[in-house]
Amino acid sequence: MASLPTEHLPLLAAGTKSTPSLPTKRLRSVSAEVAPLVTQNASARREVEDWIAAQKQSLRHEKAADEHLRLDRARQTHDAQRKREALQQQEEALAASVHKKESEVSAHQVEIEVLQSEKIKKEPILRELFLKNQEEDQKLKLLVHESKETQSAQERQLAELQQGLAMYQRLANQIIVRFTQIDPAAPNRVFSFRIRIDPVTDRFQVDECNEPVASFDGLVEDLNDSGDLAFFIRAMRRQFKALV
Question: pTM to 2 decimals?
Answer without folding.
Answer: 0.34
